[in-house]
Each structure stands twice: as C-alpha cells, then as structure tokens.
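The data layer described in this paper is built around a simple, fixed record for each protein. Such a record has a labelled line for the sequence and another for the backbone structure tokens. For reference, a complete record is included directly beneath this paragraph.
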Amino acid sequence: MKSILRGAVMALAALLPLAGGAHAQAYPQRPIRLVVPFPPGGSTDVSARILAQELGARLGQTIVTENRPGAGTMIGSEAVARSAPDGYTLLYASSSIAITPSLNRSVTFDPRRDLAPVTMFIEAPLILVSNRQVPFNSVSGLIDYAKANPGKLNIAYPGMGTTNHLAAALFNRSAGTDIVLAPFAGNAAGLTALIRNDVQLAVDSVASAAPFIQDGSLQAIAVTGLTRSPSMPELPTVAESGVPGFETSFWFGLMAPMGTPDAILTRLAEETQAVVKDPAVVAKLNTLGFETAVRGPEHFGQRIAADFSKWGELIRQARIGAD
C-alpha cells in the first residue's frame, strides 16, 4: 500500500511542471488591458499603442490601452498594483515610477513591492538646448558663463518632478553651477519661452526640441545619455563635454501586479523582445525620438532600484518637493 501511495505521489509531482507549462502556453485566453498613466495623444501614448498593437498580434489577443493619468503617473500605476496578478492587467510604466514616491509621501503603495518588472521597452536621453542669444555653444562654455554669472541663467523644464526637472537639478549639482530652474506647464510652453528669451536654456526630449533645432530657432548643446543619440550622432554628451559621469535618460517598460506567474512574465518579456526586432517598429519609435531598449525582468528590476536610489538622493539633497 505504501509503495502504491508513494508511486502516486511521484507521478503527480512529475505532472505538475507539465501543468504549469500548459498554463503558460494557454495564456492569454482573453483581451489584456494595458494601463497608460499619461494623457492620450502624446508621443508616450503613441508608443504605448504601438506596443499594444504589435505585442497583441504576437500573443494572439487584443491589448486594449486605457489612459489613466494623474499624480505623477501614480493613479494608473496604483490601479495596476491593486489588480489581480493574472497577466490580464499590465502597466506601461515610466521612469516617473522611480521618482514620484520620493517626491510625494502620500503615495500609498510601493512600486518595488507591489509591481513586478516585465521588461524595459524604450529609453531615450534628454537634450540640453539654448536660444540663439546666449554667448556660448558648448557645455564648457555654458559652465564658464554660469559660474561667472551666478543666478543669471534660467533653464526651463516641463513640470515638477519630471525627469527633465531632475536632469536640470543634477546638472547644477554636478557642474557646480547656479542656474535658476524654471517650471512650465508642458514642453511647448517651455520651448516657446526659450525662443522668446524669457529663459536661456531648456532640457527637453529630442522629439520636442528637434523641429526648433532644425529650423535654427534653437541650438543644441548636448544630450544627457551616456552615449550619443543615433538621431543626432554629431552632438556630444554632457559627460564627454566636461561633466564626467553625468547621465539622465527616461524610459518606458511593462510591469505587472506582484504575484503574476513567472511563466507569464517571461512570455511577455520574450514577445516584447521579438517586437523590437521588427525594423518597422524600430523606425516608428525612432520617429518619436525613442530608442528600443528591451531588457528582461532582472535587469529592469535592477534599473528601477538604481533609479530609486539615484533620484531619491538628489531629491533629498536638493530639497525638491511636490509642493
């Protein structure tokens, strides 16, 4: 009797991995909801819809995007964190998820505890631009002028606590300058003020600034990534132009409620990696000023943790607050 029971237990144990594999292969069996914590219509929303369409085609199910902006992306992010961990509700997360909790203590969940990283999707540097009235055209010239004229330069950025804002604050700290940080209600407002010479500098996305650089209204000084941007390979990085180690980029990626089965997370990561091997998809994202950067759950989780540490330290040292 004992030998029969032992044999039954062993047979059941052998079947369990097969059952798990069958479950992963069966996913998904119904449409998936992709929460986008940004307003509709912008380049972020467009990139999310590109991913939804292409990933849905590979999975054989429709992925429906749902825009839930607000509170520095926390409204949409928390909605996903509170959802069932079954792979049918996903988050189009941004680098803001590693910034806003350090700015706003009223955030009631911890993205590191309540959300599981799936994969990074895209990453892009910001660009440092000036108007044509300034007496410099390089990072070194900017630093020299700023140190000789403390408090006389103003740098525009779109919104409190954005990656742009923290990039400007990080530049001040890293370069030892005293440039006045000037918030604006969006990219367009800041760039318009820059052209009018209400401010002298701006840190913005490549996609937003490129048309004004191309028509000669603004001059590009440097990009904020560790490497040069493929869309502007002639433009140096801040790091190679006199501020060693300087790096700021923003990213978007997929996250899911914590507890989502590993098999589902792995499949989503693998299919997203396949999506960005399509040259047509890469071309669409490049047009938006984005660069593909698909990395799996482990690397993505490490990047989120590193950003929490980096930006949290800067926010505390520079005394940046949400109010």
